[in-house]
Every structure is written in structure tokens, then in C-alpha cells.
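[audit] Reproducing an earlier prediction to check determinism. Same input, same settings, fresh worker. If the C-alpha cells differ from the archived copy the diff job will pick it up downstream; this log only records the rerun itself.
[audit] input (228 residues):
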Amino acid sequence: MQRRQTLLSLFILGAGPRLASQTMQLTDNNTALVDAAARGQLARVRALLDAGAPIESRGNTAYSRHVTAVLAATQGNHLDVVRLLIAHGANVNAQDDQYDSAFLLAGASGHTEIVRATLAAGADLKSTNRYGGTALIPACHHGHVDTVRLLLTTAIDVNHVNRLGWTALLEAIILGDGGVAHTEIVRLLIAAHADVNLPDGQGVSPLQHALARKQTRIVDMLRAAGAR
């Protein structure tokens, strides 16, 4: 036990094998494990874990505060690091100060393989981000077709309404560009039984939003699905 603590102290101080020349370039309160995960340093993460670094260590990154290592790795889309941390029991639902978790951020960022890994690790489909949205809603917003397709194979609520009063369908229309990706996402949502008549907080329907934005193909799909 004493040897493990000594090794961990050396790694935190940057004196572990091949770490002496590395400097900490994140914010002051990060830990060695969060730092290594944020940088995608797989070997260093493994060594720190072997030395006894707590899997739920928290630190700050360039993106947010109070971040776990698995979230830091997700911020950088470091899939191998995410998988290693999950294998060591990382909590993929742990949220930072801005309510991101590895699962939620991967969905919003279109990191489909990380989403897949977090789903296998028990991702909470009902968890929400700072806007009150599930992982599906920002995935639709940003046009991440593959991520949306994967999320729709789960029991995630396709009609969840965020704090803006928008469902995934509304967000794909209102914040989308009506192009190929967002059109395909609308098709996927309709196929997954999204409510095509569920309006926003002001009572404006998906069809009305699509008409106002001249999203012709989406208008046709909505009408074919019974939108009014």
C-alpha cells in the first residue's frame, strides 16, 4: 500500500517514468489523472490507475470545472482512454459544474463510439444537461446523424421537452439548416414515433417552424406523418 501511495505521489508530481518533462497546462485544481485523460495519454492514465489514482478524481480543464477523468477524456474525444476508465469503473453519468457528463457530452458532440461505450456502462437515458435536454436533443440540433440513430435504438424519450420548450424534433428544425443531415434526423425521429404535432412553449408546431424556414423536404415528411 505504501509503495502504491509513493508511486501515485511521484506521478502527481510529474516524476513518474517518462513524465518528468511534462507540465500541467490545465487550470490549478486539476489532478494528474484528469490531466492525463484530457490529453489522451493512455499509457499515463493506465500507470496512474495502477498506482492507485481514484477513478472519480475531479479537476478543471480548459472547458469546464469539477470534471471527472472520463468526462475530460470525452471532451477530447479520446475513445481508448474512455474505454480504459470505464473498464476501471468510471461513472459515465457524473456531471461537472455545467451539468455535462461523459454520456451527455458525447451525445451533444457526436462522439458516437463514446456514446456506445457509455450506454454499455449504464448511461442514464433520463439525465439532462444545463438546458434540461437529454443526450438526444443536442445530437439532433448539431446534425449528428449516427449518434441520433444509435440513441434511437435505446429507450430514450423521443418526446422529452427541454427548458426551452423544445423536443428533439423541434430542435432539429429550429436550430437545423434543413440540409441532408437534419432532414435525415427528422426522418429518424418520425420513424421513432416522435409526436409531430407537439408544439413549442409558444404553441408553434414543428410544421409551422419548418414552413417558416422553407424546409421543403421536412415539411413534406411532417405532413405525410400527419402533422398539422
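[audit] rerun output stored. Observation attached for the diff report: Residues 1-29 have pLDDT under 50 and may be disordered.
[audit] end
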